[in-house]
Design brief:
Layout: H1 9-16, E1 26-30, H2 41-54, E2 58-63, H3 73-83, E3 88-94, H4 100-108, E4 113-117, H5 119-124, H6 130-154, E5 162-168, H7 175-184, E6 189-193, H8 213-216, E7 217-220, E8 225-227, E9 238-241, H9 247-251, H10 254-264
Parallel strand pairs: 1-2, 1-7, 2-3, 3-4, 4-5, 5-6
Antiparallel strand pairs: 7-8, 8-9
């Protein structure tokens, strides 16, 4: 009996790198945004049930720094895990924006990963005086210790929530803030998101590296809009209103197809990436 050819990396890439790829492996949902909008419970349940049926691997619930906290965060995690059978549910947000009470409920509901963003902290750092920096660093450390304590209280031998600090790989970095992050890194993993090397467009975004987002990741804002870019905090890369059409219809819609073809061709003219605001998460 002849054996079939082994699946190669090229085979795997060809499955996704096309205008009509399969459902994304990861979907990011913003439960609220800086304008004060908050995703409705009913829409969240409908959407998450649909995504669970598509077999996504990771649902990332987003709580941006400038957004009001979602008061039903624990319910959101529990519904995704129990009712929709999503294998991995993550929460991504600012350390000070996450209320301890909501976080405890999310942990109790089976949260798999907590990704704490340091973007706003690093942005605020240059404007602080030395005494303010010392106080701020102490607040970050104390808050992280509190989060880890709550995590440990809810963990069992069958389930453990992973906590990560997420930092953008900006250059140059501030040595004093680097030292703060290094100290925090003694308590949990620090994950650095590197910006690809190469030329950038007028918006400061890379133009010579393929962006995987339109092929493998989806970002849905608090209004239920599917966006072409997971870094878009303005809504300018709008693709479709998921309150009006199904997810896969939007995922395979013409705007996304045009964007993917432009990415594969090495350009960005006349595609959604041309409208990317260049604001990283």
């Amino acid at each position: 009996m002849s054996r079939g050819r082994a699946v190669t990396t090229s085979d795997y890439l060809s499955l996704f790198l096309q205008a009509l790829p399969p459902p994304p492996s990861s979907v990011r949902l913003a439960l609220s945004d800086a304008s004060g909008a908050q995703m409705s419970r009913s829409f969240y349940r409908c959407l998450t049930r649909e995504l669970g049926g598509l077999g996504i691997d990771d649902l990332v619930l987003s709580q941006p720094a400038a957004a009001p906290p979602c008061d039903w965060l624990g319910e959101a995690v529990a519904f995704a895990k129990a009712a929709c059978r999503v294998p991995h549910v993550s929460l991504r947000g600012d350390l000070f924006a996450l209320s301890e009470e909501a976080l405890v409920r999310a942990l109790a509901a089976g949260l798999d990963c907590l990704m704490i963003e340091l973007n706003s902290d690093e942005s605020n750092w240059p404007g602080l005086t030395e005494p303010e920096r010392l106080a701020y660093a102490a607040s970050l450390e104390n808050r992280l210790r509190r989060v880890l304590l709550r995590r440990d209280e809810n963990d069992t031998h069958l389930h453990k929530c992973v906590v990560k600090l997420v930092r953008m790989g900006r250059q140059p970095t501030d040595e004093a803030f680097d030292a703060v992050v290094e100290k925090l890194g003694e308590m949990c993993e620090v994950f650095v998101i590197e910006r690809p090397e190469g030329a950038v467009n007028s918006l400061g975004m890379p133009t010579t590296n393929l962006c995987w987002g339109p092929f493998t990741e989806a970002f849905i804002d608090a209004s239920g809009h599917l966006l072409a870019c997971r870094h878009d905090v303005t809504g300018r890369s709008f693709v479709a209103d998921l309150k009006a059409i199904e997810f896969m219809q939007a995922w395979h819609g013409q705007p996304f197809q045009d964007t993917r073809r432009a990415q594969l061709a090495g350009g960005e003219r006349a595609c959604l990436c041309a409208h990317c605001p260049g604001q990283l998460p």
